[in-house]
Design goal:
This protein is α/β, with parallel strands linked by helices. Helix 27 packs across helix 28 (730-749).
Length: 750
């Protein structure tokens, strides 16, 4: 029996990766210095796993930006617009992720990794793409781990998942290149086999509805990979759900070890146990890689006790731990009793090892008693239950989820009130968060700044943002959100039922980290959350100004959610809290209220048959939050980095008056779903990719809008960036928004 994890957080205990990479981007450190700093992070990660007692340390889970991009780099899949750059070059690597502002080169597309909030860089398979083994980072890291005395288990993103996630002009173009890609994998695996006795191949695609290309070719693919591994064992890791109807196929593949996710899909254990050949090893993902609550060790042990001989079982995390914070050791902010309910990545490594020890018959009584006491403390805590919230949820009616009139009736009423021009130009919400804003907010949080000084500083920031928007000529303004550290954390801090870590950071994309709030109890809103700042901003302009809120589904998806209630129940509690805020804003005279649901698509189950139930409660939650307003109040929502073709009907059912979406990186490809569905309400496809430092020209924006006009009628079209501008600098923000407004005006004049 062996213990292992599928991957460890790559950001460092104190976000060392973020600061090292950004220093390199700014030219403040050399490539050598960057690699020295990241080598220290990797070594620390391996040491944590070894000290926890795990039999292997996972190698290859580290990345300077994204593990899918790493595979593209390894396979030499560099898009032609990067001038056939050297895949081994860090400059080429970061250009692929971020674009090149100086040369006007757009970055590769970015979207969500399955149903998580992690963003990956979408591989591009062009007619001229030639796969070749181009970067030996994984082999080098494996050698480094060996030299330091660790027992490495290298991990590779599997070829079937890689091609499923890739994009090409035609889907068939990707699969026609599979044989060429497999040659690269065979070289990599052959080199790794000389260094280790186990190689992990991640194929989460086997927990989805498989494309026919995989069903017909998976057996041959794994036969070749297995042959390349020689005497090293090949582990097929399938996670984020159940194998389901893919189980017979997976059970027939040439893999020595099968890893399954028993946190997301514990019900699959018996079927997998029966189907997986008895002479092979089964790896069980018993510790949650996506949430921060302690594992019920006794329950985990009982689930698998007696399955098969110990040497045919491995114990592991359900998936990679990159979705969890690094360690509880640095936490000073969480109440001690609440912290005792949790396990971050380092603690989860210990949980994995303890389950293994228990299954081997070792005496871990003190650990089990400690675990039992922590679970009982959480279960019995008054922090987790509010009878008033439960009673209010029981009184929700269908009428509370419906607007008084259809959109066709609401739109002319709203237009008479707002008086907007054709192609109205707006932004998504946030504006650049300068060092001064972050400094005053931090000082106020730490008690080093008086209330009066803080309020004056935030008001000044709002005044500057409103003035900038007036000067630029935007049609619908925002207050810029200088008081908000994060679009979810800000609201969680003002709601009952939440708690917050001090260093619970997780990677969102690249160097971008977020610190998800923790939903530990029933949720309610004790007082207004945004009313004061919105009211102040509206006093500075005669133009319409949006009230900015985060929607219930997004707060749910971007938080660590309690696991003792159904997610649908927690989401309904959030919806009622947001509804209270919406009605307060409307009663204060706010004409437009934006309720961002950036994560709606992210929460969609991987299996088609499970999606209807999710979409029903997710859409109902949004409608519950938004539908209490009068016809004259315009409701906006925003969604980013998602494929919408499967959920266009659900988005329409949300019945927002205006939706804004990410569309620039895909060249408006995402709008095809809205054309096919004939989306009835207004829509603002993003025309500026704010995740890249480059400034789009007015001509480029006009070109994107013209593409949108082929799909969306002019009377339904809004002009806006892809997302909020929090991470951008002021010079590029002014330049890009000037071009955006100029493009809108040019279209009106034609």
């Amino acid at each position: 029996m062996k213990s292992h994890i599928l991957g460890f957080p790559r950001i460092g205990s104190h976000r060392e990766l973020k600061f090292a990479v950004e220093a390199y981007w700014r030219g403040e450190s050399t490539e050598t210095e960057l690699l020295e700093k990241t080598a220290a992070i990797k070594q620390h990660n391996w040491q944590v796993q070894k000290q926890a007692g795990l039999d292997y340390v996972t190698v290859g889970d580290f990345s300077l930006y994204d593990h899918v991009l790493d595979l593209s780099r390894m396979a030499g899949a560099v898009p032609s617009r990067f001038n056939a750059g050297d895949p081994q070059s860090l400059d080429t690597y970061f250009q692929m992720a971020r674009g090149d502002a100086a040369q006007g080169i757009a970055p590769m597309e970015m979207t969500k990794w399955f149903d998580t909030n992690y963003h990956y860089i979408v591989p591009e398979i062009e007619p001229g793409t030639r796969f070749s083994y181009s970067c030996r980072t994984l082999v080098e890291e494996t050698r480094q781990a060996l030299a330091l005395g660790f027992k490495p288990k290298p991990v590779l993103l599997g070829p079937l998942t890689y091609l499923t996630l890739a994009k090409s002009e035609r889907p068939a173009d990707r699969w026609n290149r599979l044989d060429e890609l497999i040659l690269v994998y065979k070289e990599i695996i052959s080199e790794l086999a000389a260094l280790t006795d186990c190689i992990q191949v991640d194929e989460p695609v086997f927990c989805t509805d498989l494309p026919p290309e995989i069903r017909s070719r998976a057996a041959a693919v794994f036969e070749q990979l297995h042959d390349s591994a020689g005497g090293s064992r090949l582990m097929l890791a399938a996670y984020f759900g159940a194998l389901g109807d893919n189980l017979p196929l997976v059970a027939s593949l040439a893999a020595d070890i099968l890893h399954i996710d028993l946190v997301r899909a514990p019900e699959q254990l018996e079927a997998v146990h029966q189907a997986w050949p008895r002479h092979k090893t089964l790896s069980l993902g018993l510790v949650d890689g996506r949430n921060i609550w302690k594992t019920d060790l006794e329950k985990a042990v009982q689930l698998v006790r007696g399955l098969r001989n110990a040497e045919q079982l491995w114990i592991g995390s359900s998936c990679s731990l990159i979705h969890c914070p690094v360690s509880l050791a640095a936490e000073k902010q969480l109440p001690a009793d609440v912290a005792n309910w949790m396990a971050f990545a380092a603690e989860k490594c210990t949980e994995v090892e303890r389950i293994k020890q228990a299954l081997l018959g070792r005496d871990i009584t003190p650990a089990l008693e400690e675990n039992r006491a922590a679970l009982r403390s959480r279960r019995e805590s008054p922090l987790t239950y509010d009878p008033q919230v439960r009673q209010r949820c029981s009184g929700v009616t269908e009428a509370m989820r419906r607007r008084a009139s259809p959109f066709s009736t609401r739109k002319p009423v709203q237009q008479r009130r707002l008086g907007l021009p054709p192609f109205p130009a707006t932004t998504i919400g946030s504006f650049p968060q300068t060092r001064a804003i972050r400094k005053i907010r931090r000082a106020y949080k730490d008690g080093r700044c008086a209330e009066e000084e803080y309020r004056a500083a935030i008001q000044e920031a709002i005044r500057e943002v409103v003035a900038e928007q007036e000067k630029l000529g935007l049609d619908v303004l925002v207050h810029g959100e200088p008081e908000r550290n994060d679009m979810v954390e800000y609201f969680g801090q003002q709601l009952n039922g939440f708690c917050f870590s001090q260093n619970g950071w997780v990677q969102s994309y690249g160097s971008r980290c977020v610190k998800p709030p923790i939903i530990c109890g029933d949720i309610s809103r004790p007082k207004p959350m945004t009313l004061e700042w919105t009211r102040y901003a509206r006093s500075l302009t005669r133009k319409p100004l949006k009230g900015m809120l985060t929607g219930p589904v997004t707060i749910l998806c971007w938080s660590f959610v309690r696991d003792d209630l159904p997610r649908s129940t927690v989401c309904e509690q959030l919806a009622l809290a947001v509804r209270d805020e919406v009605l307060d804003l409307e009663n204060d005279g706010v004409e437009i209220i934006q309720i961002d649901e950036a994560a709606l698509r992210e929460g969609l189950p991987l299996r088609q048959r499970e999606r209807a139930a999710y979409l029903e409660w997710a859409v109902n939650s949004f409608r519950l939050a938004a539908a209490g307003v009068r016809d004259e109040t315009q409701i906006h929502t925003h969604m980013c980095y998602s494929e919408f073709n499967t959920i266009a009907g659900a988005i329409a059912a949300m019945d927002a008056d205006v939706i804004s979406i990410e569309a620039s990186r895909s060249g408006m490809e995402l709008l095809r779903a809205f054309k096919e569905f004939q989306y009835p309400n207004d829509i603002g496809p993003g025309v500026w990719d704010i995740h890249s430092p480059r400034v789009p020209s007015q001509q480029e924006i006009v070109r994107l809008i013209e593409l949108a006009r082929e799909v969306i009628p002019d009377e339904q079209l809004w002009i806006n960036p892809d997302c909020g501008l929090k991470t951008r600098d002021w010079p590029e923000t002014r330049a890009a928004l000037a071009n955006l407004v100029g493009a809108a005006r040019a279209l009106r004049n034609n």
